[in-house]
Design a protein that fits this description.
about 80 residues; mainly alpha; 4 helices
């Protein structure tokens, strides 16, 4: 039973990561540079957390936070036409 729970948690985690990455790629269709920047931020944040010895749960949080960097930094630019950015 415990083994099944751990396997389910692993699958859920992977699905969550894939959802975040897919969402970022879709949003990146409009702004590929920012999407690549988000991916670099996510990878770097996760690596820093790994070197700090953070848990897998914390590393996931850092990674997802990095993937959605644009939404924290550029929230005021989302509604402007792409040409004015």
């Amino acid at each position: 039973m415990e083994e099944q729970i751990q396997e389910d948690k692993k699958e859920l985690r992977q699905s969550f990561i894939e959802l975040a990455e897919t969402t970022s790629r879709v949003l990146g269709l409009r702004d590929p540079y920012t999407q690549r920047h988000e991916q670099r931020v996510a990878d770097l944040a996760k690596e820093v957390g790994r070197r700090m010895g953070l848990s897998e749960e914390k590393l996931l949080g850092l990674y997802i936070g990095g993937v959605f960097t644009r939404h924290r930094q550029d929230s005021g630019t989302r509604d402007r036409p792409h040409q004015t950015r």
